[in-house]
Amino acid sequence: MHDLIVENARLYPMDGHTRPVNETSFAVDDGKISAIPASGSARETFDARGRIVMPGLIDCHTHALYAGDRMQEHRRRLEGATYAEIAREGGGISSTVRAVRAASEDDLIAQTLPRISALAREGVTTIEIKSGYGLATEHELKMLRSINRLGAQVAQRIVPTFLGAHTVPAGTTAKIYVDELVNEMLPAVVSEQLSDTCDIYIESIAFDGSNARRVLQKAKELGMHCRAHTEQLSHAGGTRLAAEAGALSCDHLEFAEDEDIEAMGSAGSVAVVLPGAYYFLREIHRPPMASLRRHGVPVAVASDLNPGTSPIASLLTALHMATIFFNLSADEALLGVTANAARALGRQAELGTLARGKKADFGVWDIPAPEFLVYRLGGITPDAVFIGGRKL
Known about the structure:
The two termini are 22 Å apart. With 392 residues, the chain is an alpha/beta fold. The relative contact order is 0.16.
């Protein structure tokens, strides 16, 4: 007796390809897919009525937990100011840092819930959320505690990532701040089991290679996974550095060169492309898709939801943008928000595809084919969403 049987479905497992399979049913037990196709009886049956069933979407790179907004900075950019100029004047990340430090955990959660709901309405079942707007031990831990509390309140799977190395806070130096990261923050994050992944922003306005090595090395010593924001605004060498450190992913990559991508291919790192930031900042450099393909680097797509450079609470919009701006194929884009997104999180063993033993996270879509999600911009929602075999 199964917990659930889904029947009469057009199944698209997204397991290395975007084609449907011949099977039209599967069984769920203890929150996981237990058989494809299903046989026998179940306590509950869901009739898909010929609709598409595919894995729940995964937004593998967001900064969704924050306070306030940065509308005035957007206005300044419309008038010609650059992201780097705004950052040097005390805006950018520093502006959100001030708002986050002034907010309580309850405030942060309350302001974030609508953004989570917006993603959830599009069939997103897993959402990665980074810290990085605290930039002091007390406030980085506050953010991670808030992210974990949020995960206990919503149905979606929330994956917390420690991004204390987002930028150097005002009033200190990179060396002093990295000392705090290495000696205080990272050990506290691990001690409280607030996150198993450390991210870092390697860029001219953030951290250089020597400081990045210290942070990544300490994270690895503590048993954490590593990820990195690299080559977004300039070629700073972060991609090769992060790949050689075994990073799960390198994200942005607009200024990455072929040798950087070759290092990613050798390391097995995932490329996370973030077209929302590219669009919002009106960039002109694009991630090197030809190089990524040539070196066999898996590509994931994410919203980069954040208050300053990608205030886009829509993974489907990012999916559409990735094909238009970055020339991803429909297949690449769809795998980028399912199987490859799970891999970017280090969760490919349990998420991202419809396969026996995987979490039963899936959406039911009344669309002609999955690539309709790439084609259509706006107005698409799934008919039903299941997380762990439970219908929301």
